[in-house]
Amino acid sequence: MNKKLLKKIFSISLASTLMFSLSACAKKGNASANASRLDTIKKSGKLVIGTSADYPPFEFHKTINGKDEIIGFDVDIAKEIAKDMNVELQIKDMKFDGLLAALDSGNVDIVMAGMTPTEKRKKSVDFSKVYYTSLQGIIVRTEDKDKFKNLDDLMGKKIGVQKSSIQEDLAKAQIKNADLKGLGKVTDLVLELKNKKVDAIVVEKPVAEAYVSKNPDMSIAQATLKPSEDNGSAIAIKKGSGELVDQINKTLDRLINEKAIDKFVTKANEQIE
Length: 273
What we know:
Blueprint: H1 3-44, E1 46-51, E2 54-55, E3 59-64, E4 67-71, H2 73-85, E5 88-93, H3 99-105, E6 110-111, H4 119-122, E7 125-127, E8 136-141, E9 158-162, H5 166-174, E10 179-183, H6 186-194, E11 200-204, H7 205-214, E12 218-220, E13 236-238, H8 242-257, H9 260-271
Parallel strand pairs: 1-5, 1-6, 9-10, 9-11
Antiparallel strand pairs: 2-3, 3-4, 6-13, 7-13, 8-11, 8-12
Helix pairs in contact: 1-8, 2-8, 2-9
C-alpha cells in the first residue's frame, strides 16, 4: 500500500472520528441543557419564584410578628414544590407585567401569580397543569352598585385592569367602547376606584371578594364577564424546561389528590386583613 493511499485512509478515518465526537458532544450538550434548569435549582439549594403580591388570596403582603411577609395559597403551593425538590423557597415581588420578562432573563425560576396559561403566553413559556380555576369579578364603588347590572351598563366607562392580564383581554373583548386603564398592581387599581379615577375594576372573583370583604365602600357588581376559553391558573416556567415542568406537576398532582389546595385557599382567605 503506497503512502498516498495510507494518508487518504487516515484522513477519512480522522474526519469520521471527529464528526462522531462532535455529534456525541452535541447530543450530550442538548441533554444537559434540557435538564439544567432543574439541576441548577437543586444545586443552588433554592427555588426562586416571581410573583406580584397584591392579589389576595393568591399572594399578598401581611405583617406577621412585626415582619412584612408574602403569603397566600400560591405561596403555600410554592413551598410544597420547593419541599419536594429539597430546596429553600425565595420570593421576588414585582409588577405583574414584568414577570415573564424576569422568567426569560433567568431572574426567577418560575412565575406564580394567578397566571392564566393563554395560547399567546404558551408561545414564549411553558406551563404546569392548571391548579386552580375561578371566575371573574367586577368591583365598583358601593354607591354605584345598582348602576351596573349588565355589561351594557359599563359601555364607554373607564375600566381598571392589571396590565398584561387575562382580565385586560376580557374587558377589551366584552365591554363595548371601554376606556381601559392598565396598571401594574391591583392595589393601585383599588385606589383609582376609591378616588373615582375609574368606574370599575376587573379581577378574578376570589380577589374581588377579598378586597370587598375589607372595604365596605366597594362591592361586586351584578354585571359579569363570560369565562375565557383559556381559564384557570398555572405556573409559568422557562421554555424547554421539560424536567422542571414534570417535577412541578408531580407536586401539583399530590396536592390536588390530597385536596390540599382547597385548604390553602380557605387558609389564605382567613388571613386577609
